[in-house]
Structure formats: structure tokens, C-alpha cells
């Protein structure tokens, strides 16, 4: 299992302060800015993101790696698969 705290993301989107579906929309835009095989980090303090991001990633074929809690927000990690 990958230690999420040690991941070097190739791209990052900051969706803190944005309510659902804002973080998901930011992730959709952000995933296009990293290459296949690279990791996108999504910062969000919306609890719905914990459900929305993995569901979206699975539906469109990317790998949801999980999230880590930071200071008042979560860092989600997705590997672009296509």
C-alpha cells in the first residue's frame, strides 16, 4: 500500500471553501492537466468529496488512491489512467 503522505503529486487543485459539486468539477478540470500515470491531488474541506471523488474516479476509469486528513481539509489522490 502506498503511503499517501509521501506522494509527490504532479498536479494539484485547491477546492477548499467550495461546496459540492465544486471539488468534483475542479478534479475533472485538473485531471486533464496531468499525464497518464501521474497523480492529481485535490484539496477539499467538503465532506461530500470523500464519496464523490472515488465514485467519479471509478466511473471514468482513474484510480482513486485515497485521502489523508490535513489541517481542516482533506488531500485526495487520483492516478490518471487514460
Task: Please name the defining characteristics of this protein.
alpha+beta, TusA-like, SirA family protein, 82 residues, 4-stranded mixed sheet, Translation Initiation Factor IF3, 2 helices
Describe the structure.
The chain is an alpha+beta fold. It has a domain at 9-65: Translation Initiation Factor IF3 (2-Layer Sandwich), CATH 3.30.110. The protein has helices at residues 22-31, 49-60, and strands at 11-14, 39-44, 63-69, 74-79. Helix 1 links the parallel strand 1 (11-14) and strand 2 (39-44). It is globular. It starts with 10 loop residues before the first strand and ends with a strand.
Structural class: alpha+beta
- What is the fourth-level CATH superfamily of the domain at 9-65? TusA-like domain
Radius of gyration: 11 Å
Question: Unreliable segments (pLDDT under 50, ≥5 consecutive)?
Answer: none
What is the count of β-strands? Answer: 4
Number of helices: 2
The fraction of residues assigned to DSSP E strands is 25-35%
Mean pLDDT: 95
Question: Sheet with the most strands?
Answer: 4 strands, mixed
Overall CATH class of the domain at 9-65: Alpha Beta
Helix content: 25-40%
Strand order of the largest sheet: 1-2-4-3
Query: What is the string of helix and strand elements?
Result: EHEHEE
Under the CATH scheme, which architecture of the domain at 9-65 would be assigned?
Answer: 2-Layer Sandwich
Question: How far is the first residue's CA from the last residue's CA?
Answer: 22 Å
Indicate the CATH topology of the domain at 9-65: Translation Initiation Factor IF3
